[in-house]
Write a structure and sequence with these properties.
Blueprint (H helix, E strand, L loop, with lengths): L1 H8 L9 H10 L3 H8 L5 H15 L10 H10 L3 H11 L6 H17 L3 H17 L4 H13 L3 H26 L1
Helix pairs in contact: 2-4, 3-4, 4-6, 5-6, 6-8, 7-8, 8-9, 8-10, 9-10
């Protein structure tokens, strides 16, 4: 874990440090993905944040690299307290091949974050996560649309902007899924 830890431990604690280098290393040698996953539980919050950031960026186009870590990522999202780790996890877990119980467990987490998180970014990530889950299980569409209405009626600009962006596509998905049920 030395090289990856050195990359992510380097620099001012308030910056992303050498995340881009960590992403390149992970994509060059995918066994480094394991190190990033492990570092998301590191004692140093800056390392945790950077590991989550690097893992999210490395897997945005390579989601299958997350598959061996599915159970761990789902377990971690249930207990993660650090906002920077939460919002990266929210993006990653929705890329996984999820089953019914997993989808509903994540939906409960995202709903809780949307309602109670102190971070506006985490709340926005939760809304995006619900949108992504609704594409995996259309029974979540109505609940997600209600969350969007709350976001639109609220006072958080980023949350309102995300709700505006996602509402139309989700309404189209609802209409299409309704049409599919008729056939």
């Amino acid at each position: 874990m030395g090289k990856m830890l050195n990359l992510l431990n380097d620099g001012d604690q308030r910056t992303i440090g050498r995340v881009a280098d960590a992403v390149r290393l992970a994509l060059g040698k995918p066994q480094h993905i394991n190190e990033l996953v492990d570092l998301m539980s590191h004692a140093n919050p800056a390392v945790r944040m950077r590991a989550a950031d690097a893992l999210e960026k490395a897997t945005v186009q390579h989601a299958p690299l997350l598959a061996p870590h599915k159970d761990y990522l789902i377990d971690l999202i249930e207990v993660a307290q650090q906002n920077e780790v939460r919002w990266h996890l929210a993006e990653m877990v929705t890329r996984l091949d999820l089953q019914g119980d997993e989808i509903f467990a994540l939906a409960a987490i995202f709903t809780r974050w949307f309602q109670r998180a102190d971070s506006r970014i985490v709340r926005t990530a939760a809304l995006q996560g619900m949108f992504d889950l609704a594409h995996k299980d259309t029974s979540l569409i109505d609940e997600t649309l209600k969350m969007m209405e709350l976001a639109l009626a609220g006072s958080i600009p980023a949350l309102k902007a995300r709700a505006r962006k996602l509402k139309g596509p989700l309404e189209r998905l609802k209409a299409a899924s309704g049409d599919a049920e008729l056939h």
